[in-house]
Fold these 2 entries.
Entry 1:
Amino acid sequence: MSATPEKLIEMRGVKLQFADKVILNGVDFSVRAQEVLVIMGLSGGGKSTLLSILLGLLKPNAGAVFFKEEDLTKLSRPKLNEARTHMGMVYQNAALISSMTVRENIGLPLEELSDKNASEIASIIDQKLELVGLKDAGDKLPSELSGGMEKRVGLARALALEPELVLFDEPSAGLDPINSKLIDDLIIQLRDKQKVTSIVVTHEMDSAFAVATRMAFLDQGKIILEAAPGEFRDSDNPIVSKFLSSYTDHERSKK
Amino acid sequence: MLQELSGMVWMGRETASEIKERLARHRSPFRLKHFFYQSNRVGVGSVPMVILLSVFVGLTMALLTGYQLQRFGLVTLVPAVVSVSFTREMGPLFTGIVLASRIGAAYTAELGAMTAGGEVNAIEGMGIGALRYLITPRILAIFFLTPCLTVIAVISGILGAAFISSLLLQLSYSYFYDQVMTNLLVKDLMAGIVKSFLFGAIIGTIACYKGLTVRGGAVGVGTATTSSVVMAVSTVIACDSFCNIFIVTFFP
Ligand SMILES: Nc1ncnc2c1ncn2[C@@H]1O[C@H](COP(=O)(O)OP(=O)(O)OP(=O)(O)O)[C@@H](O)[C@H]1O
Ligand SMILES: [Mg+2]
């Protein structure tokens, strides 16, 4: 088995269970370079788990994950680490190193994995902080940041090594509309200017439709719908339309 | 127990493979800065406690053996008995116990909190190699500094013994010094040092393993820390016995 070319990352028949609880039950999808795939699904449906598998942090019980035509599930540790340097992950809980300042957090992958010298690293850190609008927070510890700020630092760290693929786990959850928009714009900009491919897990409909080039819906451990945004919105799949309509109902009731 | 042992072996193997990979790419497997930071913490930070404990243990030992030997009129043997048993046995053992509770507990707690907070996963996810990055400087620090601390422990233990001997057993410092010099063999010193390298490695490995396998948040970190100290102390003591049997049998 080998991956189809031009697909950057692909999952085939991925199954995963914790103890006897089946979380993923045969997930298939693929993402081509420069696409932004938005994955939606119910809370607890296994979206974060799916991203962990893409990053090789969890080994699926069955199935294969191809990244640039290599099966991540079969790679040796050093090879897997090498592949990971081409990916960046924005964690749902930010997962910053709590004993390091914001600058050290962003600099960590650069220091460990690149041959850049201190001043080059410092300028990259400045640039990434600027990108996420946190120029002044560089010397703070993660515990001194708000949740939304932590998330943005997590994003800056994920982008530090200029990855080809960025995995976003609910990047705009808990952010105000302005910062949420900033992140959406950033995802679009990354795709257009730096040819970055993204997989975004989100519950925010507006940002989902703003950034997506394709959308997928994960339910009961399977991708039940994968389509372009327009088609996705008009889908007659009962679960998806219920998901989307409950959101629009909710929005309407607020007005 | 067996599962833990195989887990530790796995951890060691994977760390070694990460280090090999780093060396193949001509990158240093760990930062000297981290190694020195950890060494400072393990070594310098433990000195006061090691000295304090050893002085008191040395003092007590001299006193007890003194009173026993007095009955046979052999009080002059105290320096020899105390110095040999401190170098071979008490020094490494007490250093091991101090380090297991001071440093082992700290390693487990901090690595445990990092594991529980997803930080270890985040480091791993960046492709840095969490095992190599987190474990190597810690285990190396404790491995190289346990023998140094043992030497300090031995010296302070003997000083404590000499002090009480001159005070209560009427043995002068110079007599004590001469006796130590004639009775202490290089073999005893070597036995103590080799043992303490071993103890350092045991404590470091157990503490890191326990920290990285934490489950269940804050309570999990607490449980893991307790069990890390218990396991490290008992392994050190058990290992000490085996070492003694080995040494006595093969190097009489
Ligand atoms: N380490 C673990 N051990 C056991 N079960 C787990 C573990 N991690 C996740 N789960 C279970 O897997 C399921 C999916 O979790 P996951 O975090 O992937 O959901 P999610 O889709 O990201 O949800 P949310 O939208 O709330 O973030 C949950 O039912 C959870 O209980
Ligand atoms: Mg999640």
Entry 2:
Amino acid sequence: MSRRLNLTLKVWRQEGPAANGHFEVYKANEIPDDASFLEMLDIVNEGLIAEGHTPIEFPHDCREGICGTCGVMINGRAHGQEKGTATCQLHMRKFNDGDTIVIEPWRAAAFPIVRDLVVDRSPLDKIVEAGGYISAPTGTAPDANEIPIPKEVADSAMDAAACIGCAACVAACPNSAAQLFTSAKIWHLNSLPQGQAERYRRTEAMVETMEEFFGSCTNHGECSEACPKEISQDFIAYMNRDYIKSKVVNRRLAGQR
Amino acid sequence: MAAPTADRQALGSKSANNPLRVKGRDLPFPLNIYQTAVGKKWVMAVTGLMLVGFVIAHMLGNMKLYLGVVEHNGEMIYDADIYAEFLRELLVPLAPHGVVLWLLRLGLLAAFGLHIHSAYSLTRMNASSNRTYESKRDWLAANFASRTMRYTGTIVLAYLIFHLADLTWGWIPNTEWEHGAVQSNVVNSLSNPAIALIYIVANIMVAVHLYHGVYSMFQSLGINNPQYNGLRRGIATGLAVVILLGNVSFPIAVLFNIIDFDPALLGPAG
Ligand code: HEM
Ligand code: FES
């Protein structure tokens, strides 16, 4: 038998980017404890719609922790209290009957609030556009294992590639720095043979695009704690290393003929 | 990453497409490194390391205060006073008297200037990038030291100026001071409990600053190897504790007459 929970929600409501927002209190009654956090919001929204109110807008898509669309501050923590868990994978059984849950959107100067709990994270796309790719001749897919890659390197690249771009790192950072995101995207490619040709151009361009939108890292470590994929701050150190090198390498390349 | 569909028209000037800041024209290498935040963190870390080196050397030098009076060129004189003269005599006769000390001071001054400027400008950048939460937020990894760097740093700067006024320039009223008389100046100043308290509190602030600063420095400089990363916290804590104990010991030792000044001990040896 699943438990049923009666909860009080304090939800940030805001009509648009320029509007003033405020907390609205809602009762969430008879919530099955095997509902996910987003399903709980669905149930509340059905009630709101039935009463003729505007439903709470919240970001969601895959609902299985792989797309990076979901994400809100839940009781002062990005993606809620469970470690390594995206909002969509958080289940109501982790809460108690009678709890008050405060829900706020990600906050950063670079992320305008679109509505309620939905923010515009396109600055992250800008960072990827600046160099988060490799240029390769297209054609038929290469044979597997054609390029030998040491196991440790493949593992490290895979750990970095686990980033789903949800922006919890930015949301959790008191400086709104996007270092964890950017370094994961950089290291994913910089560690692999396929990423070498553009390594230093990529690093310089992605870091400098990042700095147009976000703050500077002070090594608190809140980002990795918030990350649903538990991405390590080690990548930030690797990025710092490659960035300084990029200034030297790119300068030399610019003077080459 | 799937940015939610945003109505760009409605977003207007609040569009996420507009950068918060645009990097200006590139200065010539290597100055262009300092134009970026990651570059500034490198400068902050390198200058921080220089300051740590200074703080350690300064503390070791002060240990001479415990050695009391020794014989020097047929005279009984306080070891700390010999040390002060030694600093002015560094590399003499290769360099004239006092010149190397001044070069070291200029390097230190430059390090302080850059450290403070990078701290100031990154703090401004962070303030303009951040929007605070309306509800209470939890801190999971940040600690007291990491969240108070700009305050502990500012207190250290204020203390530094006080400390120079006290023992280098002799500006503190009602405290006897004489150029070069290290042992008596230190004892005259620190035997006043109010001044001793300032020294103790300020050096606790230095230790708190270094507890995060030294750890942070490894990350900023890209010194990271998952196999050895555990050492970084240990090194930072250890260094902070050693510097704390060493520096706080001086005012306490003066208050308890472990370090003292007795003019009767001076004069010709024998
Ligand atoms: C004089 C006033 C000072 C101010 C305003 C100041 C301010 C700061 C700030 C804001 C940071 C950045 C902290 C972070 O990344 O979270 C920092 C880092 C640091 N500070 Fe200071 N500080 C001062 C003095 C000192 C002194 C005297 C020392 C050495 C004894 C020192 C050593 C360091 C080190 C090693 C770092 C780490 C650099 C890094 O993060 O890479 N600072 N300081
Ligand atoms: S909805 Fe896709 S990760 Fe949560």
